[in-house]
Amino acid sequence: MSRAREAVGAARRLVVKVGSSSLTTAAGGLDPARLDALVDAVASRRLSGTQVVLVSSGAIAAGLAPLGLRRRPRDLATQQAAASVGQQQLVARYAGSFARHRLTLGQVLLTSDDVVRRSHYRNAQRTFDKLLTLGVVPVVNENDTVATAEIKFGDNDRLAALVAHVVRADALVLLSDVDALYSAPPRDPDAVAVGEVAGPEDLAGVGIDASSSDVGTGGMTSKVTAALTATNAGIPVLLAGAEQAAAALAAGQGPAVGTAFAAAGRRTGTRLLWLRYAAQPHGALELDGGAVAAVAGRRKSLLPAGISGIRGDFESGDVVDLTDPDGTVIGRGFVSYDATELPGIIGHRLGDLPANRRRPVVHADDVVLISRTSQPITQGAR
Ligand SMILES: Nc1ncnc2c1ncn2[C@@H]1O[C@H](COP(=O)(O)OP(=O)(O)O)[C@@H](O)[C@H]1O
Ligand SMILES: N[C@@H](CCC(=O)OP(=O)(O)O)C(=O)O
């Protein structure tokens, strides 16, 4: 058995994510039988001693029928309204279902601020720790009703990867309407299931189409991106079908299902993880050749002298892309000036600037580098 599968089996703290399409009927609306089957698998693992956080999509899908909507709305305001109506229905169903196992759930609704802001991040971490030590099953979703375009996680696969990091999970299980990652979209007759992914090189020949189910947002691209986000942060991932939840969550016993992604890097700080995979840049700084060598080659801070251009309307603390003179993004960072302050100082050496301007524009500790080969997989349009 691979180490990733062993890690899922042995995990003492596990994050499990389930997509909308795995909780709804073909006609739309929540499917109590599928939800109960999922809860049975989670409860069985929980009752064997593992702490489990459940990241569940389905709020918008559950809100469609009560609002007389026939399909997932495209505009944000109607999505927010559907999520408001649907989230409570979803959680009420979960509460009833977990109660069959005498388990208590706690609802946790997150926005990206809860992960990206250091103080909020610690707060979320404390809340999860307390819920888990009290034996509660946290049921997590994005707070869709208040999330604006700027602060949206975008999809729950990504949210689940970040939550796995926040709670310091031993493994992440992504449950979907497809039973594994395939070498090509499953409608392709030659597609074969991929059992193990040791690293990004194993994904080189894999074909993924951009579509996702009618009720969800992610698609396979976002699942693979989330899996790589988690594995890069040292957390192994199992991607499997929601219908195989019992086998996927069985602690090391039972048949090997789904696709296992091996953990790669060491655990990184969530703030930089967010910067790499989740943040929306507010602008860009163009670096000259010397600054590219210093920032990307020698891991130095970006000083005003090395900046040859500014794009966007950002404030101190915002995320900006760092580009080379050709416009290729080489990294991202938290900028320490407002865009309006920069024209007067770029191109100047620190010694020539007033005392209150003698600091880096982006500190080395606030930068992630993005090489061509590690560019996050782009998400399919929806
Ligand atoms: N290479 C691939 N392997 C597996 N599934 C794929 C692949 N390419 C595209 N898909 C599609 O991705 C879908 C899963 O994404 P999605 O419907 O968004 O799931 P969920 O609702 O669980 O988040 C599958 O139903 C499948 O049609
Ligand atoms: N937060 C949204 C789900 C977003 C999402 O990523 O959905 P999915 O692709 O089904 O996991 C909801 O609860 O409707």
From TrEMBL:
InterPro entries in the record: AceGlu_kinase-like_sf, Asp/Glu/Uridylate_kinase, G5K_ProB, Glu/AcGlu_kinase, Glu_5kinase, Glu_5kinase/COase_Synthase, Glutamate_5-kinase_CS, PUA
GO BP terms, alphabetized: L-proline biosynthetic process
Residues noted as binding substrate in the record, renumbered to the chain: 57, 144, 156
GO (cellular component) term, any one: cytosol
Origin superkingdom: Bacteria
Binding site for ATP: 17, 176-177, 217-223
Pathway(s) served: Amino-acid biosynthesis; L-proline biosynthesis; L-glutamate 5-semialdehyde from L-glutamate: step 1/2
PUA domain sequence ranges: 283-362
SMART domains: PUA
Pfam families in alphabetical order: AA_kinase (PF00696), PUA (PF01472)
Cellular localization per UniProt: Cytoplasm
Catalytic activity: L-glutamate + ATP = L-glutamyl 5-phosphate + ADP
Top-tier EC class: transferase
Protein name: Glutamate 5-kinase
Organism of derivation: Nakamurella aerolata
